[in-house]
């Protein structure tokens, strides 16, 4: 599949999609910042009394279960149902799935009771959601997943969605195909919340690009290229994790002004028939 990243970023900047993120307390500000820096409008309504109304007025809905609670579970389900009723794309980030029975149960509810446009998780979380053994410590994937493309396709089939499995090499899968996305930098792993920020990025692009697979590919490769640009010092000197975090957000905001390799060189179909 051909992906025009520049076009996707231009559409986001022009449309300024309103993205309601029901996300976790640890990274809520980071998620809001990247939504804004891509060109979207972040709103973080998470009270069950209003979240449905806010989501219905939005262009995308992010559900991140990083600090899952009973109130958060109810709010995410209310937001997702309102999004489905209004035709608003839902992005689910099942943070920590595979680490505790509670997280497994909440993730399963979100994925079976809601129509999900994009499911984004790390390799361990996606593997766990297919019922296979996965090494997840807290909210981190710590195992090796050699067949992650096949697993991601199986997950996409099970939940009828587009899957983004993030890791050293990201995989974007549908029930029929899988693409590997080679973009990013190891320093991204030194910052708490990059996975959550990827979820916010995917929701922002999905709020402006109608096709979920194209939105997932564009959001994933753009996020990785921003990580590379920050590590290369194109947005200021990087001395460690804190300065990298700042440079990364600047890179998200300024990626359109940076010369990057053609994204088709970063995306390779590894399963399915080329379209």
Brief summary:
The protein is an alpha/beta fold and 275 residues long.
Task: Describe the protein in words.
Helices cover 45% and strands 16% of the residues. With 275 residues, the protein is of the alpha/beta class. The chain has one domain (5-257): UDP-N-acetylmuramoyl-L-alanine:D-glutamate ligase (3-Layer(aba) Sandwich). Strands 2-1-3-4-5-8-9-10-11 form a nine-stranded mixed sheet, with helices on both faces. A two-stranded antiparallel ribbon has the order 6-7. Strand 4, helix 5 and strand 5 (118-122) form a beta-alpha-beta unit. Helix 2 packs parallel to helix 10 (241-254). It starts with a helix and ends with a strand.
Write the layout of secondary structure elements.
Blueprint: H1 5-15, E1 18-22, H2 28-38, E2 41-43, H3 51-56, E3 60-64, H4 70-86, E4 90-93, H5 101-113, E5 118-122, H6 123-129, E6 136-137, E7 140-141, H7 148-159, E8 162-166, E9 170-173, E10 178-181, H8 194-206, H9 212-231, H10 241-254, E11 267-271
Parallel strand pairs: 1-2, 1-3, 3-4, 4-5, 5-8
Antiparallel strand pairs: 6-7, 8-9, 9-10, 10-11
Helix pairs in contact: 2-8, 2-10, 4-5, 6-7, 8-9, 9-10
